[in-house]
Amino acid sequence: RISSVVGDQNDIFLCTTATGNLQLIRLGEIGYFRYNSKGRQWEAMLYDGHVLKLKRSVNSQMILNYHPFLTQISQSFILLIKENNCVLLPPFNTVETLQITPPFLRKLKEKYPSF
User: Fold this and answer.
1) Positive or negative CA dihedral for 3, 48, 78, 87?
2) 77-80 and 70-72: which strand pairing?
3) Cis omega (within 30 of 0) on the bond before 102?
4) pLDDT digits (tens, 9 = 90+) for 28-70
5) CA–CA separation, 39 vs 46, rounded Å?
6) Those residues with Cβ within 8 angstroms of residue 114's Cβ, 6 or more apart along the chain or in another chain
7) HEC-encoded secondary structure of 51-102
8) Which of 4, 7, 9, 31 could staple 92 via S-S, CB 3.0–4.6 A?
């Protein structure tokens, strides 16, 4: 049974990679999602330094629908935010600045009033 292999299914992100393979990833293994405008596809930035390129047909809304804590902060970034907290732990604490753009800041404030 797959449930005994993966454990808590609320913590699992199931995606189709650019090569067409299905990939199971725990949300805790994902630092953030980034849109690669050059490749015109979303990528999952993993804690071990790997970049998982998602299938080109995957859009931001599809990613956001995977889990209620996934939140888009700009056209190019989706993060996991829980209870008004967004903390990037190593190795992501030294990555580029992930700026929240004004339209997405309004949405964040609606979702998290104390943000």
Assistant:
1) positive
2) antiparallel
3) no
4) 888 899 999 999 999 999 988 899 999 999 999 999 988 888 8
5) 18
6) 84
7) EEEECCCCCHHHHHCCCCCEEECCCCEEEECECCECCCCCCHHHCCCCCCCH
8) 31
